[in-house]
Amino acid sequence: MNNLVISVDAMGGDNSPRVVVEGIVLAHKNNPDIQFLLFGDEAKVSAEMKRFPAMNEYCTVVHAPEFVRNEDKPSQVIRNKNTSMFMAIDAVRKGDARAVISAGNTGALMAISKMILKTIQKIHRPAICTNIPHKSGMCVMLDLGANTECNAVNLAEFAIIGNILAKHTLEIERPRIALLNIGAEEMKGREEIHQAAKMIKSTHLDLNFIGYIEPHQIGEGYADVIVSDGFTGNIALKTMEGTAKLISGMLKGTIKSSIITKIGLPFLLPVLWKLKKTMDPRKYNGAMFVGLNGLSVKSHGGTDAVGFSYAINNAAKLVRQDFVQTIRAEVEHVDLDELSQDILYDVY
Amino acid sequence: MNNLVISVDAMGGDNSPRVVVEGIVLAHKNNPDIQFLLFGDEAKVSAEMKRFPAMNEYCTVVHAPEFVRNEDKPSQVIRNKNTSMFMAIDAVRKGDARAVISAGNTGALMAISKMILKTIQKIHRPAICTNIPHKSGMCVMLDLGANTECNAVNLAEFAIIGNILAKHTLEIERPRIALLNIGAEEMKGREEIHQAAKMIKSTHLDLNFIGYIEPHQIGEGYADVIVSDGFTGNIALKTMEGTAKLISGMLKGTIKSSIITKIGLPFLLPVLWKLKKTMDPRKYNGAMFVGLNGLSVKSHGGTDAVGFSYAINNAAKLVRQDFVQTIRAEVEHVDLDELSQDILYDVY
């Protein structure tokens, strides 16, 4: 077996294992070098795989007697070694795979991943991260909810991880890094953000750091990496989703309410179709849980095969470029705890 | 002079005093009972007013020798009693007016308002508040940036104020109140939010309180009052603005890029026009600075006469219903500090 292996929780998500199997088939077209380890109910998974005989060349099924349900609390399932989710994550710890993907229970995936894979040495906290669209491309945003409260060291670590993510997944050579804040001026916002700014300026990321970004500037494409605590990042991400839904709902309502626009529908359809394609949430599927000794990726539970394949594609990019090892090497030379002391002394 | 007087900083905003004067003329049509005190350069203001002779019946101009510039820092202008902004706010303190409106420097308006008008007894912190659209109407959102950090008492106070705002400006008899959070479950999010939930449940707002709301649910119209700290509220509001701009930009780009849609433009225009009308930021103009002994309203600096008139309309609604006195009466019977002690003891 080669080095590029991704383990998959075949039982996670609303339509598993069907969507998972079909997603792997789609992803394999772009990633013929990747091998897959599928954990799940062997009979069910094999039945789905029968439709794609070529899969046997790049997939191995490992039977898992149980699976994590959406309604399970993380504390209930975290120590159950017989679930497809646990076994898929454990394959990364054992070195059998380099990343794990699941469309299952988010809380359980995060809790088990954290417990089994542990944070990379010198990284204090893992973060949830995803790519989001702006007017001329995409940017990386983290943390999106792993950490409700963050100190300056955590934020600076997220900047380091985000920088590598943008390089590897978006292929941006020198990503512009920004801290999410409520103003551009130095003293705006919270103290931990000011301290994080000072810390980032003291690292090798100094030249890539563009300071604070306000949420309405994200869509303008001012930055490639948006760093925030998990509470704020989650608020911003869900606000984007909600606003997009509100506007598209209004657009539909307006079209339906007018005879003129009903007549003009043939002209409108290409616009709506293209807009839908640009904003297609499947393209941004795959929240990455980063900062651990191995990559853990959460696919949306309700996604289809196309969406699942996007999550795999992103994970494959990171695996191929040895993402975890790159983080290890970068933090090796940066002592954020020491920097933090310097900055705290500075304040008094 | 009757009791319903609004004082106006005639020199604030990008096109003052022209826009201010025209805005007052528009607002007067809906509010014939309101009198205005205009503070500013008498020659300039009177010159603009000459175009509308009837204004003299409901407007009094008071000369102010100086004005606050956009680039002035609050600390530089806070004690300058000769600016139109200071004098307009001071008219509220003196009892000459019940509310003040300015399209000028936000930081200065907030700082001077807070210094001169002071918070209502038993209210610890003022909040910035505005109405935002959802799919079937509007809701009140606060705090939008006055307080970067908030404790549970502050959040509970915002719930009380927001409840009155929704009743008075949106005419909702029993507003549904929610705390903005990253999950619906009781233990999600930050500790101060959990404590605030307990406190609100212990007040007269108990039956109106619907728990936590996530940002993507705001547009669904689940709540009439959305309460958060000023950092989070500001992030959410600016994310809404940014996402709306991103989508409308994409829509325009798509229309321009396709010959079919260019041909169909006559059919498209009514849709875009109606969407623009619904989302028109002028309708939501007027951020209210509430919790002080008097109402201070910030109009967007770049707005036009229509936008300025909306800000006046909102202020007029509150003045007519004696908003400040209603808050005083409601907090009279609620001892949030005592409640806070009970809840803190509960934790240990």
Give a description of the structure.
The structure is a homodimer of 348-residue chains. With 348 residues, the first copy, chain A, is α/β, with parallel strands linked by helices. Chain A folds into two domains: 1-119 and 291-322, Isopropylmalate Dehydrogenase (3-Layer(aba) Sandwich), CATH 3.40.718; 124-290, Isopropylmalate Dehydrogenase, CATH 3.40.718. Chain A contains 14 helices and eleven strands. In chain A, strands 3-2-1-4-11-10-5-6-9-7-8 form an eleven-stranded mixed β-sheet, with helices on both faces. In chain A, strand 7, helix 7 and strand 8 (209-213) form a beta-alpha-beta unit. In chain A, helix 4 (84-93) runs parallel beside helix 5, helix 6 packs across helix 7 and helix 6 (152-169) crosses helix 13. Chain A is globular. At the A-B interface, helix 8, helix 9, helix 10 and helix 11 of A face helix 8, helix 9, helix 10 and helix 11 of B.
Topology:
Two copies of one chain form a homodimer.
Chain A: E1 5-9, H1 18-30, E2 35-40, H2 42-49, E3 59-63, H3 74-77, H4 84-93, E4 99-102, H5 106-117, E5 127-134, E6 137-142, H6 152-169, E7 177-180, H7 191-201, E8 209-213, H8 215-218, E9 225-227, H9 230-257, H10 259-263, H11 265-279, E10 287-290, E11 295-298, H12 305-320, H13 323-332, H14 336-347
Parallel strand pairs in A: 1-2, 1-4, 2-3, 4-11, 6-9, 7-8, 7-9
Antiparallel strand pairs in A: 5-6, 5-10, 10-11
